[in-house]
Request: fold
Amino acid sequence: MHAYAYIMETIYDSKIDKRGIKLVKKVLGLIVLLLFAFGITACTEETTLPQDPETLIVQFVPSTAVDSALLLKLKSLEGMVEAQLLAAGYDINVNISISTSYASAIEAMVSGQVHVAFLTAQQYAYVTTEYPGEVEVLLTSVRDAYNAQLGAGNVVITDPATIIENANTTGYDATTNSAVKVSSYYSMLLIRQEDMAAYEAAGIDWLKGKNIGTQSTTSGSGYVYPSLLLDDNDMKFVPNAEGPNAAEGEVGYTTISGHQTAVLALLNNEVDGVFTFFDSRNHATAYAAWQEANPTLNIYEVTQVAALTTPIYNDTISGLASLSTGLKTAIQNAFIAIIATTDGYDALQIYNHKGYLVAVDSDYDGERALYRFLNPVA
Reply:
């Protein structure tokens, strides 16, 4: 408006006739109104359209220790994702980061510091229940079925007792079948073979008063689903340091960071059992030192699967709901394409993922129901 006043003053200072002044005033007034209207529209569009980031922050929450070699593999995903997004028309930098826990990853997402995160189904249920509208599932992972899960004709077995029997059969080695994909997995209770007779005699009550290795309290297979299994059998976890009261149905738990580390604690007689994902004993290097020290022992024979929880939906790749629809689609296509490559597949074995499928929020209604059961409103 300062420019408009200056122009008008200039016009008055000149010797233009009154009719000319009126005409110029009308034209300039129209120009100002048009510019003002354009400014309002532009501001409105700028504040309502999703704002995609210049750098896309993707966060992993590893279930096992991350050494320098694994970190390099994860960081190699940055270039792969950038290339896929660029091909889809998004010239965006990608930064891969590592979180120490699902809780911190979720906190970073809801505060807008992380745009995409690898969350378990339970963590997705948590964030969509407690922070509705903030996070949206993009993909669900699929895994190769364990042979213990397959019957004749590669039909997937859903009876837990049959899967347990197969996993405890001599010769079982946790091999998988790449021709059969499954969208869920289990948490297993693993105990020493020497304790199986006592467990079979007492059933799940054998756990009362025992010291069981678990993962953090936010881990689906390492704590959450085992807690539900105990609750269904009138038992509950208490910190082992407090001294669990068997008569009260208490089961002591000791938090151990990493599923394979928990299995090693069982092998070394540091705990009575462990809850880990099925089947965490299948790892290329985690048990190398133990095997070297015990060359005559077979990890699948000295440990036995005692129980399985209800099925757990596979991990998600989730993104901020505020990302544009086009970018979300590009991210989905990027990871589907990347895991189909040798290098991408290798990098994503931090989770043993074998592929991805586009997911929708309603797939996780059951997970939210479980979350609400475990977290009743006071």
